[in-house]
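Entry for the shared binder. Reason: the reviewer on the internal report wants the predicted structure included alongside the sequence.
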Amino acid sequence: MVSQTTIKTRESLAVGAIVGPVVFIASWVLGGMLADGYRPATDAISRLAAKGASTAPILSFGLATYGIGVGLASIAMRRVLGSRSATALGLNAILTFGVLATPLEHSSSIDRLHTAFAASAYVALALASLLAAHRFRQRGWSNAAAISAGVGGITAASLAATGIAEWSGLFQRIGLTVSDVWMMAVAVYVLRSRGTPIRTR
């Protein structure tokens, strides 16, 4: 049987779901301000880490921090999110390293691989909140379930909207930010209640 001390220690790793997204968001905001000719509303975030981009070290650091932080947090938040949602969150973290390892502008094949990693990571992120909504509903947390379902819907819709080339950067930022804020809120709950029994109705 796992001790309460072990649970508290493990769930402390949920801080990664706060640090990771904050650093990632800061990296693309700062990178967007520093990159010459870069337009956040129309240009993809990944352009900031493309081969030869002066902002590549900044965004690469943000992506790596996100991947590590969210990966650890997916383990810490499993008891609250449920195994399926936590697995989707962990998959999102792993796929983020795929995005990091395949920067744009190397070759057409690398670009296609990058797009596949990025799209898959986005889908996993949307699934994390949608699966959490189902778990929350089972526990009687109706408000949390509704919010999570809404976040998943917005993220999924934003992913689909990135196909609109003129505003792809804006929709990408909307989807990622909404899911990141949701993730941070769940992490705060886990950190404040770590080790205590989960209350259900």
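Summary line for the report: The two ends are 25 Å apart (CA to CA).
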